[in-house]
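Course exercise 7: structure representation. Students receive a sequence record and must write out the corresponding structure in C-alpha cell form. The form below is the worked example handed out in class, using CRISPR system precrRNA processing endoribonuclease RAMP protein Cas6 (291 residues). Read each field label carefully; the graders check that inputs and outputs are placed in the correct fields and that the protein name is recorded exactly as given.

STUDENT ID: A-19
EXERCISE PROTEIN: CRISPR system precrRNA processing endoribonuclease RAMP protein Cas6
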Amino acid sequence: MNNQSIFSFSYLPLTIHLECLESTTLPGYLGSALRGALGWELTKNPQVYSYLYENRNLQRGKADVVNPYFLNVPRKKLIYQPHETLSFDFVLLGDAAQTGNRLIASLSKIAILRLGAQRSVFRLKSIVQASNQTILWSSDRGILQNPESVLYQASREISCQYCSIQLKTPLRIRRDGELLQEYDFATLIRNITQRIKAIANNYGGSIDSRAAERICQQALHVNRFSSQLYYKELKRYSNKQITSLDISGMLGTMSAEGDLTAFVPWLLAAELIHIGRNTTFGLGEISLVID
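STUDENT ANSWER:
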C-alpha cells in the first residue's frame, strides 16, 4: 500500500503579525487571550464565527467535536514595546481552509486588537501564508493574494530507533473524565490517530481505519518508553460562562526506543496538528527528535 494513502487532509496555515502600540506586559500564556480577541472580532461575520467557534452546535452537540482550527502561540516573550511585532499562527483544517478568504477579509477590518486583562493595544500588521511565506494581506497594501490550502499526506516511513517528544505547550488528555498525568506510548498514538480520524471525518480528508487500528495495536508493544513530565497549572477566563476555567496540562519530554519506523508518519502529523484537548488555545503542541 502506498504510505500516503494511510491518511491525508488539507490545511491552511496563516501567520498573523500584530504591531504593539503601547508598552505592555502580556499574560504568561497567550492562547486564551488571542483566541478570545479574534473571536470577539469575528462575531461581526456570523457565518465565519459560527463555523470556526461554534461548530459543536453545528454538529448537534456531539461531545469532544474536533475544532476546524488551532493556534500556535508565542511562549517566551511577555514584554512588548511600541512597534514591536507579536506573531502567531492560525491554522485552518480540512474544509475550513476554504473559509480562508472570508477569514482574512474579516480580520482585515480590525482596527485595534486588545489582548489580556490589561486590554493591551495592538493593530493588525499583516497576514502571511506560513507554508510559502506569501503575504496575503498587509495594512498598507490591502489584500494582495488569495490563500491556497495545502494537502498533507502521510509521510514515507523513516527508519527510526529512537524518538524524543517535547511538549511545547501543556498537553491535556482525559480518560474517564480525569486528566492524565502519566502517559504510555500507546495512549499517545491512539490520541493521534483519533485526532486525524476526527479531522478527516468532520472536515474532509481520508484515513485508513484499519491501518490506524493496527498502529494502535503495535504501540501496545513499545515497552521502552520513559517520561519526565510535570503538571502546569493554567486557567482561562470565559466571557460566555463568566468564570475562570481550568486548562492545566502536562509539560516535559517523553522518549521511546525500539523499531519505531511505522509510527513516524503519525508522529510527524501530530507535530503539525497538535494533540490532546484545547488545541484552539494552542495546547498540545509538540516537537520531535527522530533518530
